[in-house]
Task: structure prediction
Amino acid sequence: MLNRDRVGALLLLAFTLGYGALTFRIPLLPFQAQAAFTARTVPEALTLLGVGLCLILLIKPGRDPGESHAGYQWGRAAALCAVMVVYGLTVRPGGFLLSTGLFLIAGFLIMGERRWVLILSTAIPVVVLFWALMTQLLGVFIEPWPEFLRG
Result:
C-alpha cells in the first residue's frame, strides 16, 4: 500500500539514483584511476547509503495512520532552516569564523540553550578547530574574516 512514507521513499530513491548516475560524470585524473579514494568515492558511498535507506523505507511496515504530528516543534525547525539559509548567504562576505560562530550561537539559542558560558565555550573552539583542520591539515583555503577586515 502506498502511503506518504513510501511515496517519499520512492521520490528520494529516484533522486538518489539520478545523483548516483551523475557521479560517473566526475572527471578523474589519469593517476587517480586505480586510487582507493577519489573525487567519486564519497558521492558513490552516499548513493549506496541513500539507495539502501530508501529500500528499507519501502520494505518496512507502514506507520499507523492514526499517528499525530502534534508533538513536533515546527517553529523551531523553520527557524533553524532560516538560520541555515542566512548562514549560506553570509559565509562568503562575512568570513568563515564570524559567520559560522554566529550560526552555531543562533542554533544553540533556537534549540533552547541559555547558558552563555557553555554556548561560547563550545561554539568558538569548534569553529576555530574546524577552520584550522580545513586550512592547515587538508589545505583547503577558507577566508576566515569578513571582507571589510581583509584590508
